[in-house]
Amino acid sequence: MTVVTRDLTKYYWMGKEQVVALDGVDLAMEAGEFISVVGPSGSGKSTLLHIIGCLDVPTKGDVYLNGMRVDFSHKKLLVSLRRTFVGFVFQAFNLIPTLNAVENVEYPMYFNKGGKSKREREEKARRLLDLVGLEKRARHLPSELSGGELQRVGIARARANDPKLILADEPTGNLDSRTGKSILDLLKRLNDEEGKNIIMVTHDLEAAERISRVIRIRDGRLQ
Fold it and tell me: According to the model, what pLDDT value does residue 206 have?
């Protein structure tokens, strides 16, 4: 199994009121799967994604990545998993505005001590941009790119350190329907042709239905 969660629970306190974001979520993801997680706002979709991606810490329960139980008290381990095992694609793109497209894709490699030289990192970043059709936009800043181009840079960046798992949080949410379809086509190609494991959170039921496995969540519980 690539991802397993057991009794995954997350709650917050707002004053004296307890807010439950996840309520005992059990999930198992086989190698090579593409899973879409759908549900209304506040249902726990993004919280689930962030905990699996080691960006947030559960109140209780366990997460296993590639068979290894994640120790959420071990900060260096969490950093290592975020850098090597998981790639992130965000709704708001989260590109660094002062870096051009190739530099944004190269950026995660800088922190992954894999021994690559500056030249090797840049060459790989260019290859990844080529794969998403942006070879001619490599030197453009984020402010000079369209929404679809920004998300393609984001997908290329998510692949920079060859992760086994890609987590996409509303990747088409800020895009028009045609551009959103092209981004979904790109993610599906990564899954179909490269076997990338992908978990995508979305409000778009039409997009979700194009994915082989759809999980519905409401009030922090899988339906």
Answer: 84
Amino acid present at 133? G
C-alpha torsion angle, residues 123, 126, 128, 133 (rounded to 10)? -160
The answer to whether the beta carbons of residues 37 and 45 sit under 8 Å apart is: yes
* Beta carbons of 39 and 69 less than 8 angstroms apart: no
Rounded CA separation 167/36 (Å): 10
Q: Are 124 and 188 in contact (CB under 8 A)?
A: no
Task: Determine the pLDDT at residue 205.
Answer: 84
In sequence order, the β-bridge partners of residue 22 are 10
Q: Which of 198, 167, 203, 171 is nearest to 29 (CA)?
A: 198
- Kind of pairing between the strands at 165-169 and 86-90: parallel
80 SS3 class: helix
Mean pLDDT, the chain cut into blocks of 10 residues (223 residues total): 95 89 97 95 94 97 97 95 95 96 96 80 96 96 97 97 96 91 94 95 87 94 93
Helix (H) or strand (E) holding 148: helix 147-158
Rg of the chain over all Cα atoms, to the nearest angstrom: 17
Closest-CA residue to 154 (of 190, 203, 207, 118): 190
pTM check: above 0.85: yes
Distances (CA, A) of 193 to 133, 180, 188, 190, 196: 16, 20, 8, 6, 8
Contact by Cβ (8 Å): 199, 65: no
